[in-house]
Design a protein that fits this description.
Largest sheet: 5 strands, mixed
Strand order of the largest sheet: 1-2-3-7-8
Strand content: 25-35%
Helix content: 10-25%
Structural class: alpha+beta
Number of strands: 9
Shape: globular
Length: 134
């Protein structure tokens, strides 16, 4: 089984493939000191995107119980968690493995939270159009 960091890296690559499939151009900053994971060029604009993920079904055995919500850490930093703001990112893209779905949120809709609860119903229509993608 993959470790947490490897699963996060996998989600980042899945995001890039999704952006390409939707007609955008993903660009990755060199190193890992940037507050965002990708810059997406689409519709004549550039957007800074931070990718997060929840792999609850992979990391924890849920048995036969249906998973209807996930908790996602949306803060940055290994020890001193810092919240993302619209000064550091434009969008948050979250891969939710239990739902096999993406959630796209503008930075100004995240608030000052370090975690967020996502329900299965929140994932209907990932809003890729916010990034200028189809």
């Amino acid at each position: 089984m993959k470790e947490g960091k490897q699963l996060g890296e996998l989600a980042e690559q899945m995001f890039a493939v999704e952006v390409l499939n939707r007609g955008g151009i993903p660009s990755k900053p060199i190193g890992d000191s940037s507050p965002y994971d990708w810059v997406v060029h689409a519709g004549g604009k550039f957007h800074r995107v931070q990718v997060k993920s929840s792999w609850m079904g992979v990391l924890f055995r849920t048995g036969k119980r249906s998973v209807n919500r996930c908790r996602v850490s949306i803060a940055c930093g290994a020890s001193a968690k810092v919240i993302y703001t619209k000064a550091t990112i434009d969008f948050l893209a979250v891969w939710l493995e239990p739902f096999q779905s993406w959630l796209i949120r503008p930075a100004n809709k995240i608030g000052k939270r370090k975690t967020m609860q996502v329900r299965r119903s929140d994932c209907e229509g990932a809003s890729w159009s916010l990034l200028g993608l189809s």
